[in-house]
Amino acid sequence: MGTSWQRCTFHFKRNIIDCMPKKGAEEAKYLLKRIFDAYSVEEARKLKDEFVER
User: Fold this and answer.
1) Which end of the chain has the smaller Cβ count within 10 Å, N or C?
2) How far apart are CA 1 and CA 53, in angstroms?
């Protein structure tokens, strides 16, 4: 079984940012970078939850 969808992280992050309001975009970019740079899946999920809350 293969993957049905795949994007490089650069374009995936860019797509997310393009869909967000421009106000607070710098903070959002920083928070997204932290998610993708996380050392573990658990840490990434925690950071993702924080990102969604904000």
Assistant:
1) N
2) 34
From CA 2, how far away is CA 37, in angstroms rounded? 25
pTM: 0.69
- Indicate whether 2 belongs to any domain: no
Asked whether residue 49 carries a pLDDT value surpassing 70, the answer given is: yes
In a domain? residue 1: no
Digit-coded pLDDT (tens) for 1-45:
566 667 788 888 888 888 888 887 888 889 989 999 999 999 999
Given a contact cutoff of 8 angstroms between Cβ atoms, the answer to whether 43 and 24 are in contact is no
Q: Which of 40, 20, 36 is nearest to 28 (CA)?
A: 20
Q: List, in order, residues 6 or more apart from 20 with CB less than 8 Å away.
A: 28
